[in-house]
């Protein structure tokens, strides 16, 4: 007496097939789960037993063995409850095996027989669609599963309802797609008085997906500017929204079955641990940098973060993904995010302010800025100074451009980049920040005057090869914002002006 149910386990975003086999045989009453289950799966025995008893069904007084194949693959998660229960019901001839043969099954059981929502339904539904299978899942997760494009979804609120559906006694209603969630009203850039150069740098960063560091005294508006970046970024493309939604689904961040159409904006506190920022822990969960995939990671008070935590950002910033190694697994998450950081020039924040002179300058600045390594700074395209705004300027300066006006220019620049890459047959990214190698040389070719200026600056300031190429990408974005097909000397000059030197306080 053997039954088989199709289910999955997760390794990061990767979904791995699991053949769940149930055998009931004669022998001393026992309930055994084998195949490297974690503690949550081992506890399924009691949840399944109680759920069946709530329906008036008792487990057979026989030997019940649940095998999770392949046996050498570690499995974890409470979503094995429902496939285990259905496998037992098939062997007991309560549910026909044919009704489940072409379905992927996931769900956690309550003691009263309810089917509870779980994390990871969206990537599971994408996997089911690729395998041309249907999906059986909790009712609360049905709307989320629809975003995968899968149509054959059975979303059941209770185990008894699912049994009756599989026995053709009732037909469960199809889940309804809930419209994509939109962020609350964006903070508007017109609220920021003054800081015109910082606003322009933020626009360039948004247009090309460039990393940005703002340096300035407390109260100069660094956090205020960063908080208004989401309002000038273009919405997610459908492919980006699905990919980002899958990460948030694994992390349990989706609400009410909605994926978000706006780019994520994550702002962890500076006491965040390395696993919290880059991912990890017992289940290798995605960290803040993966939750910010296709969006923005804002690190305020950058030097206050733990040094090893900041150094862990170097690989994701360069490659667009993060690798998490555990004893029994190696997990990779996408982490293509735009880093926006802010910091004071020194610990007290008064360096360079004639009214509040730093009492320990320049040692205070050197100690504070040394917490950020050169290789990490080298991966930041734009480094600008954000000076304090005087009360007279605040009272006299009129409101500037709105976020809507700036966003229109950003979207136009990104369209230019996407169309250029499409003509060249390039897929996988949409912004200048991702240009590399021969593609960068072709797209960001310079004329003689611009090349001479860049080489002269690189020799004088000792730019690394990485910084040189990042300057090319930045100049390409500035030209795109001005709808120029060629990169001119003035575009390179503006790109070089965004390389504020922390150590000397000059450009």
Q: Any key phrases for this structure?
A:
alpha/beta; 507 residues; Rossmann fold; single chain; 2 domains; five-stranded parallel β-sheet; Ribosomal Protein S5, domain 2
Brief summary of the model shown:
By secondary structure, this protein is of the alpha/beta class. The protein has helices at residues 39-42, 44-54, 81-91, 121-130, 142-146, 159-166, 196-208, 222-227, 238-250, 274-278, 288-291, 307-311, 314-319, 363-369, 374-378, 391-396, 403-423, 437-443, 448-461, 465-481, 489-497, and strands spanning 2-11, 14-25, 30-34, 63-69, 103-105, 108-109, 115-116, 134-138, 153-156, 212-215, 265-266, 279-280, 285-286, 296-299, 321-325, 330-334, 338-343, 382-385.
Description of the structure:
The protein folds into 2 domains: 165 residues, Ribosomal Protein S5, domain 2 (2-Layer Sandwich); 309 residues, 3-Layer(aba) Sandwich (Rossmann fold), CATH 3.40.50.300. With 507 residues, it is α/β, with parallel strands linked by helices. Strands 11-14-17-10-18 form a 5-stranded parallel beta sheet. The chain has 21 helices and 18 strands. The longest helix is centred in the C-terminal third of the chain and has 21 residues.
